[in-house]
Specification:
Blueprint: E1 2-7, H1 14-25, E2 30-36, E3 41-46, H2 52-61
Antiparallel strand pairs: 1-3, 2-3
């Protein structure tokens, strides 16, 4: 299992957290997603076929690009 914590500066509220968690949780291979508006971070755990590149691309597609 892989895990990474990404900084996402545009997280500002509970709606943002919910949108990020639901979108990433739908990705095949993603096993855990925890977004936090207070720290503006998203911690993701995954196995293949998910990848950090696909996770970052999905965040960008939903207007929450990671830095």
């Amino acid at each position: 299992m892989n895990q990474e914590t990404l900084t996402v500066p545009t997280i500002s509220c509970g709606h943002c957290v919910s949108a990020i968690e639901s979108e990433l949780a739908e990705m095949e291979g993603v096993t855990s997603v925890k977004a936090d508006a207070g720290t503006k971070t998203v911690t993701v755990q995954w196995d293949p076929p998910a990848s950090i590149d696909r996770i970052r691309a999905t965040l960008t597609e939903i207007n929450y690009p990671a830095q």
